[in-house]
Design goal:
Pfam family, one: RT_RNaseH_2
Radius of gyration: 17 Å
Protein name: Reverse transcriptase/retrotransposon-derived protein RNase H-like domain-containing protein
Distance between the termini: 32 Å
InterPro entries: DNA/RNA_pol_sf (IPR043502), RT_RNaseH_2 (IPR041577)
């Protein structure tokens, strides 16, 4: 483990803690989506919500956060 690895790890941490990766949930009736996966070595799950963004041009984009 050297300085290059440390810098890469710090950059990854900052990327995971910034928008749009980390976004608070909306409790306005927007449904939650549970995605899970497992194997003989472990398991994991994430909780997401789907949002629609409308740009000034009128284009709509669906995103999952």
């Amino acid at each position: 483990w050297c300085e290059e690895h440390t810098q890469a790890f710090i950059a990854l941490k900052l990327a995971l803690l910034s928008e749009p990766v980390l976004k608070g949930p909306k409790f306005d009736g927007t449904p939650f989506i549970v995605t899970s996966n497992g194997s003989k070595h472990g398991f994991g799950a994430i909780l997401t919500q789907r949002f629609t963004t409308t740009f000034p041009s009128g284009k709509m984009v669906n995103r999952t956060h």
